[in-house]
Amino acid sequence: MNHHFPLVSIVIPCYNQATYLKETIQSAMDSDYPNIELIVVNDGSTDHSLQVALKAAESHPNIDVLDQENSGVSKARNNGIRIARGKYILPLDGDDLISSNYISEAVKVLENDEEVKVVYCQAKKFNEKGEKYWKLKPFSRYALARDNMIFVSSLFRKKDWEIVGGFSEDMHMGREDWEFWIKLLKDGGEVIQLPFVGFYYRLTPESKRKKTGSNQKKRERIDYLNRKHADFFNRELLGPLRFQRTWSRAYNQLMRFLGRI
Question: From CA 65, how far away is CA 73, in angstroms rounded?
Fold first, then answer.
């Protein structure tokens, strides 16, 4: 253990992303931070993702591969984090990329301030046609109650993951990272966004964000969040999160005025 550079565990869940996985792993290995481990969790892929991961592990002693039956991304992340040895965790999906300086700059912030729970950065979305800047809203708990502005590939302490019970494995309607940030941050903790682009989100036809964007999935997600975090929404929105999320607080104010909440 290098005590000047605490270990960072990069956890890469992968399901049928063999086409991109080698590039993702290389992106992580190109980090200028000197003390990392990679844990690739093959979530029951039916392509050759496992073979790509195992080949990478042959060349790099700090890569471990975990092979599991298909169980979903939350369980894959949790299983990877559970065996991680790092003080800090960086989830990285099997088709996304990070810049070489992202981890080193994030660790500086976390090491210097115990009040900071999450460090992320600016980001771009990309595909074979090009890339575009990902305009993320500024963080506040009120804003977090209405929508998520922190992508999952952010750094946090493993001990904080343990305290909140990890990613919720019963959340199957998408945006599980949003729910994770709510339970991690609703009772306090600072969030810092680094002032440079350090994360690259790959747009693909198989993107889970697209698959979970239907109105039905949105309603299921909102119902789930309201059941699990009623205290948070009552505090920030004066009542439950609504389907028209940006109007939630105003609508709840009206319902209170009318005596319906």
Answer: 15
Environment class of residue 98 by beta-carbon count within 10 Å: exposed (0-12), middle (13-18) or buried (19+)?
Answer: buried
- Other CB atoms within a 10 A radius of the CB of residue 110 amount to 20
Contacts with 256 (C-beta within 8 Å, 6 or more apart), sequence order:
238, 239
**Phi/psi of residue 97, each to 5°?**
-135, 155
What confidence tens digit (pLDDT) does each residue in 105-139 have? Answer: 999 999 999 999 999 999 999 999 999 999 999 99
Q: How many Å apart are CA 178 and CA 174, to the nearest integer?
A: 9
Query: Please, what is the average pLDDT of the chain?
Result: 94
CA nearest 201: which of 143, 147, 120?
Answer: 120
Please check the confidence at residue 211 and state whether its pLDDT lies above 70: no
Residues 6+ apart with CB under 8 A from 159: none
Looking at residue 254, its amino acid is L
**pLDDT interval class at 258 (50, 70, 90):** confident
Q: Note the Cα 250 to chain centre separation in Å.
A: 29
CB contact at 8 A, 36 and 28? yes
For the chain, the C-alpha Rg in angstroms (whole number) is: 19
Instruction: Give the predicted TM-score (pTM) of the model.
Output: 0.94
Torsion angles phi and psi, residue 12, rounded to 5: -115, 95
Coil, strand or helix: which one is 20?
Answer: helix
